[in-house]
Design goal:
It is a single chain. This protein folds into 2 domains: about 180 residues, 3-Layer(aba) Sandwich (Rossmann fold), CATH 3.40.50.450; about 110 residues, 3-Layer(aba) Sandwich (Rossmann fold), CATH 3.40.50.460. It is about 40% helix and about 20% strand. The chain is elongated, with a radius of gyration of 22 Å. With about 325 residues, the chain is α/β, with parallel strands linked by helices. It binds adenosine-5'-diphosphate and 6-O-phosphono-beta-D-fructofuranose.
Length: about 325
């Protein structure tokens, strides 16, 4: 049994994701139902260092489960990457009576949580990122909403692209992670999917594919480009010049990070937030909540950060096979 926890802090860090509010709400209400006090830390580690710390009651999180963004705001904080910043963060936690923190964010944020844990502040990570790029979990908060937002937008682009018999390059988010691109590739029936994990960008292949499809009489050609692979507008210019097919680029951008969370994001985020509060109350630290094989489970943060999450090659092969007719 670890140290006794009286006050739990909660923060959101890194890129925001729809469903983060559901997770915050669950941390607050589950911790309070376990007899603990809760403090909200605004603007991630940056707000911790600036002591932007507020008391949170069960009522303070009313009317938040359906809202996109994060009521605690989020930030990226350079200072917290330094040993000095981390030590100051741990001191500030002690000053405010915070014995344990729930960190809702991606793997960068978990590295910060790992450091706080080593300095004696109990920490539990909750995976909050639209990228689905955390290796110990098959689910991250916000992916479901983001991928549905992107899918609906791509359907709309496809309508006009077909009417004009154009090629469309649609850029989705994921500088280092191709899951949004891969899922939309399947869900939207894209002709080509470009993923940062594949390191196989070959423009001539795209050009040949488009020319072949035109010969077969295909009226549209959708290329889904994960942000990390290349500059969509210049790709479009070069492809149009090489094929004579009018080619346009659409960048979906930050719309993918906003909006009211889907049912799945609300429910899974609630489960994960509540479980994080319970784990802290049990005295656990340096753990991260994940979802694997149909179960919510906790993992050691160090081990979780060492695991590698590549693209599921079978899923990728299926995406390619299903786009051919
Ligand atoms: P995400 O959590 O979505 O992966 P980032 O990688 O931007 O987002 O990380 C969010 C924040 O976590 C950073 O701005 C920084 O404050 C903190 N962080 C990232 N890496 C480390 C690290 N190695 N050590 C301590 N803190 C870190
Ligand atoms: O990690 C979430 C994410 O939206 C990535 O998909 C994207 O590459 C990055 O954040 C964009 O970050 P920013 O907030 O700096 O635009």
């Amino acid at each position: 049994m670890g140290k006794e926890i009286n006050t739990i802090g909660v923060l959101t860090s890194g890129g925001d994701a729809p469903g983060m509010n559901a997770a915050i709400r669950a941390v607050v209400r589950k911790a309070i139902s376990n007899g603990k006090k809760v403090k909200g830390i605004r603007k991630g580690y940056s707000g911790l260092l600036d002591e932007e710390i507020i008391d949170l009651s069960a009522q303070d999180v009313s009317n938040t489960i359906e809202r996109g963004g994060t009521i605690l705001f989020t930030a990226r904080c350079r200072e917290f990457r330094t040993e000095e910043g981390q030590k100051r963060g741990a001191e500030i936690c002690r000053k405010h009576g915070i014995d344990g923190i729930v960190v809702i964010g991606g793997d960068g944020s978990f590295k910060g949580a790992q450091k706080l844990a080593s300095l004696g502040i109990n920490t539990i990570g909750v995976p909050g990122t639209i990228d689905l790029d955390i290796s110990c979990t098959e689910y991250t908060i916000g992916f479901d909403t983001a991928v549905n937002t992107a899918m609906e937008a791509i359907d709309k682009v496809r309508d006009t692209s077909t009417s004009h018999e154009r090629c469309s390059i649609i850029e989705v988010m994921g500088r280092n992670a191709g899951y949004i691109a891969l899922w939309c590739g399947i869900a939207n029936g894209a002709e080509d999917i470009l993923l940062p994990e594949m390191f196989d960008y070959d423009e001539q292949k795209l050009i040949d594919h488009l020319i072949n499809n035109r010969r077969k009489g295909k009226k549209h050609h959708i290329i889904i480009n994960a942000e990390g692979v290349g500059h969509s507008a210049s790709m479009a210019r070069r492809i149009e010049a090489a094929t004579g097919v009018e080619t346009r680029a659409t960048i979906l951008g930050h719309m993918q990070r906003g909006g009211s969370p889907t049912c799945k994001d609300r429910v899974y985020a609630s489960m994960m937030g509540a479980m994080a509060a319970d784990l802290l109350c049990e005295g656990k630290t340096n753990r991260v909540v994940g979802y694997q094989n149909g179960r919510f489970q906790d993992f050691d943060i160090n081990e979780a950060l060492e695991m590698d999450k590549g693209i599921d090659m079978y899923q990728y092969e299926i995406a390619r096979a299903l786009s051919v007719h």
